[in-house]
Amino acid sequence: MGTTPEGSSPRTLAEALRTRGETELAALLRARPDLLNPVPGDLTQLATRAGTRASVVRALERLDRFTLQTAEALAVAPDPASYGALLALLGGDDGDPAVEAALPGALAGLRTQALVWGGDDRLRLVRTARELLTPSPARPSPTGLGPAVAEATAGMSPGRLQEILAANGLPTTHDPVSAVTALTSLFTDRRRMGALLDEAPPEALTVLDRLVWGPPYGEVTATPTPPVRWLRDHGLLLPASPRTVVLPREAALHLRAGRAHRIAEPAPPEIVPAVSASGRPQAVDSTAAGQAYTALSTVEELLQDWHEGGPPVLRAGGIAVRDLKRTAAALDTGEQMAAFWLELAYTAGLLASDGEADERYAPTPVYDEWLTLPAAERWALLAEAWLTATRTAGLVGGHDGKGRALAALGPEMDRSAAPEVRRRVLDLLASLPAGTAADPETVLARLRWERPLRAGAAAGADGVVDLRSRLVAWTLTEAETLGVTGRGALSAHGRALLGAADDTAGDPDREARSAAAAAAAGNAAAALAPLLPTPLDHVLLQADLTAVAPGPLERPLAETLAVLADVESKGGATVYRFTPGSVRRALDAGRSASDLHTFLAAHSRTPVPQPLSYLIDDVARRHGHLRIGAASAYLRCDDDALLEEILADKRSQGLGLRRLAPTVLAAQADPSTLLQSLRSIGYAPSAESAQGDVLITRAHAHRTGPRTPPVPVPDGPPAPDGTLLAAAVRAIRAGDLAATVERKPAAEPAARPAGPGGGLPRSTSAETLATVQAAVMTGSALWIGYVNAEGAASQRVIAPVRVEGGFVTAYDHTADEVRTYPLHRITGVAELADDPA
Fold it and tell me: What's the longest Cα–Cα distance across the chain?
């Protein structure tokens, strides 16, 4: 089957993959799911795809710091390298027990991902990874090492090589290869190299100290100083360009005592508790529950403010800066936090654009369903949406790659790394004892160790150098604001939100993950419910025309009170103030004075103050006494003296009023302007219909059509499930069998063998039919070439079952299923030396 001969090392990555079992191949495809799209035809294709630049870069980005350091050490080691040489590069001449303990695991991880192959005596880094990690002037190595002597002296004149050998007391040779080998041997010999450096001027050693840990390149003038000239003469500085020199790798490793990195980091940084950690789980849970309830109130207030329709949608998507400022003022918060609440409501599916001609944002029908749920369940839905969302509110106010501002609810707010960072930050908080907060700097250091390349790379369109670090800071702030954490520590309901989901976090089965997420949300709601305050059915009325709600109110009471009074202050207790305008608002909504008296008496634990009763009666007595309708506009009142008063009022001169009858005034203004103007100067008119009935002005609820929440943008291809992995491994194995299996020689001279380079087999139609019919009778397997209806050619291993009507029905080992093939599309057949098992 083309496997590596017994006792020999694989010569290529494809040969190394052929020695792997099904479990190991499945582990490779699970770790690098991008290799599955589409499924490779054989192991050679899989190896080729695993060595492409895009795939290798993606694999390197997911390595932790020590595994990446292992790959970087292999990149500067001889190719191939032994396990001992690799260990020496990571642990140095003195060795490091922590490195010795961690190296087998790191190497196993690199092997699993097919970034390293070969036995411990011949370790090879995939060529693309070596090119990415090998130092050059344009791309400094993370190790800080320069090129090897052989690379740095490439193109150097033989005469110059002889001068360097002579300066070091080495025998001269006219063979450049021998000269480079002699110089390399000198630099790698600890004893001889130490003796050479003992002869160096102190100033020369100072120059080497500046280059030893990188960058290894330095500029020189046309007339270098004596220390630099001594280093150049002895080959310790080799020319990289006419005015640049480089410290060769072998010399730098000697100066570093054999270490490829200044500090090897085999173990992740520990998460250190914050100095201010309280250590009281009850206090943490209570604080988080208070924040959770505030989050619910804020989302409700936001969407209530947009009840009749929110701001318009910009042409490029999102809302304008002025609308964000208005929203922040309405929520009494900053613009960045207002953007967070907007993005949270949008992600949870409570807010969307209405899709009409004059497109605006508005609550969705899901919002009305959400309001009917218990408070704990409403919070769990918000927290779950936040945890899995790729939309990142922290980017609002920044700029994309073209310098355009990023707007809240805009189209470029997704960052695929956000869910991973959020979950990982909360997992790290969960690793601490209950009630203990973590030092944010240690959390950041841990995540940088786990994904060093991503932390140090550019973050994309927003131009952020270290997006993951900013995501960590945003996650800690947002988790506290949302009530997932309290006082910096993970709450009990926050742990429940993670618990069930963590059990299947790596499960590729979407249904299993959805069920786990639903279970986690249910557990979080159950843990939070006892901590939330019970809604009250009463308020405390006071003589200064205010009402105090000592806690959260039941929804019908809160909605009615919000119409009848204005909110004066919020906090542990909410203070409402009754004003003539607020009472008139309730009367405009269809309430009568008697309804208001009854409502207040039923929901107040204190007697209704006399000033409040007088206020309601006074406003109600004047409410609707004046009637405004549409002529252009008219003003009607049974009290002609009141109309005389209005005509004489200088503040009404701009309305263009004139008397048509003793009880009717005409106006040049439209009814709505007339209504607002008279109210602003102290009157209490009401609008009437064409039939003379008073118009009741209730808020019109504007809703979008059914909308689905925004789908998170995945960070690369999804993880394959077990069924797909098993099928893919079978298909790759069968395709590899078809490509590498030994075939019997043709029985007749007329039979044509496979094309050059192992192409499709070729045979005549008669030979094909005869061979297939014989295979049906003997039950043997065949290797065929096949061209489908689209013209795509492939090789397959089949076991023919039946031949009739110009078709052959066979079990296809490549696809692992029974298929039917037209005989005229089979280019040729060949018998297998051994049938596949």
Answer: 127
Higher pLDDT, 106 or 667: 106
**128-142, pLDDT tens digit by residue?**
999 888 766 666 677
| Residue 629 identity (one-letter amino acid) | G
Quote the pLDDT of residue 638.
Answer: 79
Residues 106/70, Cβ–Cβ less than 8 Å: yes
pTM: 0.76
Residue 305, token pair as written in the block: 């403010």
Write the Ramachandran bin of 309: left for phi over 0, alpha for psi from -120 to 50, otherwise beta: left
Q: At what angle do helices 22-31 and 97-112 cross, to 10 degrees?
A: 90
Based on C-alpha coordinates, what's the Rg of the chain?
Answer: 39
Question: Pairing relation of β-strands 664-667 and 658-661?
Answer: antiparallel
> Torsions phi, psi of 246, nearest 5?
-135, 145
pLDDT score of 236: 93
H helix count then E strand count, the chain? 34, 23
User: Which helix (H) or strand (E) covers residue 15, if one does?
Assistant: helix 13-18
Angular region, 115: left φ>0, alpha ψ -120 to 50, beta rest: alpha
Contact indicator for 220, 229 with CB cutoff of 8 Å: no
Residue 776, burial from CB neighbour count under 10 angstroms (0-12, 13-18, 19+):
middle
- d(CA 687, CA 630) in angstroms, rounded, equals 9
3-state secondary structure 48-78: HHHCCHHHHHHHHHCCCHHHHHHHHHHHHCC
pLDDT for position 503: 44
Determine the Cα–Cα distance for residues 534 and 531; give it in Å rounded to an integer: 9
First and final CA of the chain: distance in angstroms?
12
Q: What is the pLDDT of residues 287-298, one digit of tens each?
A: 999 999 999 999
pLDDT of residue 674: 81
Residues 363-376 pLDDT 10s: 999 999 999 899 99
Whole-number Cα distances in Å, 259 to 69, 254, 262: 11, 8, 7
Cβ contact 86:122 at 8 Å: no
300 and 350 Cβ atoms separated by less than 8 Å? no
List residues bridging with 139 in a β-sheet.
none
Strand ranges, E, within 458-573? 485-486, 489-490, 540-542, 546-549, 566-569
Long-range contacts of 495-504 (CB under 8 A, 24+ apart): 495/430, 495/434, 495/527, 496/520, 496/523, 496/524, 496/526, 496/527, 497/380, 497/383, 497/384, 497/387, 497/426, 497/521, 497/523, 497/524, 498/423, 498/426, 498/427, 498/430, 499/523, 502/427
Residue 302 and residue 345 in contact, taking contact as beta carbons nearer than 8 Å? yes
Apex 620 CA angle, 616 and 625, nearest 5: 160
Contact 623, 582 (CB under 8 A): no
What pLDDT, on a 0 to 100 scale, did the predictor assign at position 191?
A: 92
Specify the higher pLDDT residue, 708 or 209: 209
Write down the pLDDT at residue 140.
65
Give the 3-state secondary structure of residue 634.
Answer: strand
Task: Say what the pLDDT of residue 223 is.
Answer: 85
Q: Which residues contact 26 (CB under 8 A, 6 or more apart)?
A: 725, 726, 729
Task: State the helix-helix crossing angle for 440-450 and 65-76, rounded to 10 degrees.
Answer: 40
The pLDDT assigned to 278 comes to 56
Interhelix angle 335-347/321-331, nearest 10 degrees? 90
Question: Is 789 in a helix, a strand, or coil?
Answer: coil
Specify the DSSP class assigned to residue 823: G
Across the range 317-329, mean pLDDT stands at 93
At 496, phi and psi to the nearest 5? -65, -35
Where are the alpha helices (H) located in 623-670, listed in sequence order?
A: 640-648
Rounded CA-CA distance 738/718 in Å is 29
The position carrying tokens 């007329």 is: 750
Residues 744 and 782: their CA atoms lie apart, in Å, by 10
State the Cα–Cα distance between residues 613 and 621, nearest whole angstrom: 12
